[in-house]
Write a sequence for this structure.
């Protein structure tokens, strides 16, 4: 993990690093890392975030355990307001630096400078129950892939018809195949 940090953007393909595919809505991806989506959005993106090396993404508390590190493969989920081919694809890879589970307001105060969500957005993740926990995923060194991988290409690599509704872990071999096809 530390070696990849120093060799960035290089990846050590045979490293046994935990890797998860995480779906992200195109609306959030355009601000966090996806210049292609930002260029297709009427109002562009938040350029101050695009220039940061480290960012935070929020989601429901299910799927990852606090303290875990590894890699993230970003799957930009379907959104009809963006051009065909810019969503429903694997777009990028990041280093997963930290997972924290806590109340929306506390996470917002801790990470508001590293994310695009407003406090109201975080509370929506809990179905408007502000005392419920959510997850903050701190990530860094995002590498935008040269080639987007479609859902069909991902299914071929995984050897199963899957949809990317929630995050899931992949094997080192699956990561290597995704990375090879995408770069």
């Amino acid at each position: 993990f530390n070696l990849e940090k120093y060799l960035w953007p290089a990846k050590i393909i045979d490293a046994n690093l935990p890797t998860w595919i995480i779906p992200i809505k195109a609306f959030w991806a355009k601000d966090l890392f996806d210049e292609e989506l930002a260029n297709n959005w009427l109002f562009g993106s938040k350029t101050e975030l695009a220039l940061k090396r480290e960012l935070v993404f929020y989601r429901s508390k299910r799927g990852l355990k606090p303290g875990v590190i590894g890699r993230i493969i970003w799957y930009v989920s379907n959104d009809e307001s963006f051009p065909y081919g810019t969503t429903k694809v694997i777009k990028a890879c990041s280093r997963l630096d930290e997972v924290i589970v806590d109340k929306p307001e506390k996470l917002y105060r801790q990470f508001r400078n590293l994310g695009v969500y407003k406090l109201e957005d975080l509370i929506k993740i809990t179905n408007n129950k502000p005392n419920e926990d959510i997850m903050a995923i701190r990530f860094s060194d995002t590498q935008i892939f040269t080639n987007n991988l479609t859902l069909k290409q991902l299914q071929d690599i995984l050897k199963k018809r899957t949809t990317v509704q929630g995050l899931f872990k992949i094997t080192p071999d699956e990561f290597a195949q995704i990375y090879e096809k995408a770069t």
Remarks:
- The chain has one domain: 2-6+18-182.
- The mean pLDDT is 87.
- The first helix runs from residue 2 to 7.
